[in-house]
Amino acid sequence: MEAAVAVMESEGVDTVFGIPGAAILPLYAALQHSSIKHITVRHEEGGTHAADGWARVTGNVGVCIGTSGPAGTNMITGLYTAMADSIPMICITGQAQKSKLHQESFQAVDIVEIAKPVTKWAVQLKEPAQAAWVFREAFRIARSGRPGPVLIDLPIDVQRGTCLYDPELDAPLPVDVPQPLPKAVAAAVDLLSAAERPLILAGGGVVIADASTELRELAEHLQVPVQVTLMGKGAFPEDHPLFAGMAGIQTQTRWGNAAFLESDLVLAVGARFGDRHTGDLDVYRKGRQFIHVDIEPTQIGRVFEPDLGVVGHARPTLAAMAAEAQRRGKARRPSAWANRVGELRRTLPRRDDFDEVPIKPPRVFRELNEFYGPDTTFVTAIGLYQIWSGQFQKTYLPRRYLVCGQAGPLGWEVPAAMGVKCAHPDREVVVVVGDYSFQFLMEEVAVAAQYQIPFVIVMINNEYLGLIRQAEIPYDMNFAVDLHYGEGGIDHVKAMEAFGCQARRVEEPGDIRSALEWATAEAHRSRLPVLVEVMVEREANAAMGPSLDAIKEFEPLPVLAEDIDWSD
């Protein structure tokens, strides 16, 4: 286990999250003499989400540790979340001794077989001599290709063994960075250059690849507007003249959908074409060509067949496309199409300046956008508040907007924020959470308080399961969704105080700003998490019912798409 810990140190791990137990104590014995900081969480799922958050903002491999039996099964949701969102992570579990595995020993479960569907590699260490090399391979696999999680299971007798290992003669294994074929790059630039109304769609793969600079260089040279997916928020600054919003059926902008439907070609980089983004594929695909760039070859054609597939790491692929475009000619001037996207942006915003009581959710995000700076990291999960966040929240830098996109586990936000803050202690971290999601893993607030990990929690509280209630509407029902906090309910302010943290409830829109100022100052002063609970209207819709009822009335567009000569 000393060799395993030495490998983790050399791989750049400075913080791990976990819960010790009898079957994993040899690893902990080695860990206590290392430079790695250990954060003891209250639930193994919380530990995985914390490691996930750490990995998302560092780009390195997050690590979570647990004992045998239920520790490993509690990690499955976190492994699935990391697998779905392409996050490099290693979960380490203790295990009963090898000779007892077939005898239903205490807390002995075949966690390797359980974890295989939600990991890139699940392995049980069989021999002490393999320890350093299995850990090295785990880090390589987690980082390689489409990143993802690995599980390493450690029988207690193997942990107690010894091995020959010299850390001075070892180093991280090389990670392949797939380069695109030059002919494919040239073909992609041909299609981009020939299109009258092209868009670039930046997915989470652009953020993971740290390819934002290359994306911007290509877009600016060809004057191609750029959209982002939910996972790609931050890949392109949202105040850039070429920013074209977000398309989708939930987390989208009205003008982003309009621009997408007017486009004739889409260059998708590091995007999965998830169903919440595409909606009806017949509508999504009609009238436009697609170029799909992905590091994982089997992703291309999985949802639909593109006109051109390009296999490659996002950063060298975008760099090669930019170089090819520059070789062919000088930077273009803004086109009629780029101006059209700007016009859609000006004329099709959603309203967020409501003064009504109860508070309308868009007003909350207006205050967040205005109060916090571009370097703030926002963490959010799943539900109406995530949809509002995707629709209204502004993001300007990569790795500053974290969301559990595909798996969507409730409770992800608070432990993920702990991981972010451990990685970047000086960065402002804000958690946007729903009242129900907060209750899933709110015990992790105690961890943040114990280790003095400060961040601001902004709770959007509508007192019931809003997204599920919307889904129930077609069934003509309103069943089992009410969470009204009357007698016997949860008082979130008192719950935070029970953890030794401060909280404030807001019911007037004019009080949101002062509450954010107070919470931010209090988090800095106390070095503890602080909660702002915003009570919003119960009937506000975002996705499955009528859209928001929060849209401005606009004059008809002065120029319609069919009236534009795109060749000009």
From TrEMBL:
SUPFAM superfamilies: DHS-like NAD/FAD-binding domain, Thiamin diphosphate-binding fold (THDP-binding). Its EC number is 4.1.1.47. CDD domains: TPP_PYR_POX_like (cd07035). Residues 382-534 form the Thiamine pyrophosphate enzyme TPP-binding domain. InterPro entries: DHS-like_NAD/FAD-binding_dom (IPR029035), THDP-binding (IPR029061), Thiamin_PyroP_enz_cen_dom (IPR012000), Thiamin_PyroP_enz_TPP-bd_dom (IPR012001), TPP_enz (IPR045229), TPP_enzyme_TPP-bd (IPR011766). Keywords: Ligase, Lyase, Thiamine pyrophosphate. One of its GO terms (molecular function) is tartronate-semialdehyde synthase activity. It catalyses: 2 pyruvate + H(+) = (2S)-2-acetolactate + CO2. Residues 2-113 form the Thiamine pyrophosphate enzyme N-terminal TPP-binding domain. PANTHER family: GLYOXYLATE CARBOLIGASE, THIAMINE PYROPHOSPHATE ENZYMES. This is Glyoxylate carboligase. It comes from Herbidospora galbida. The gene is gcl.
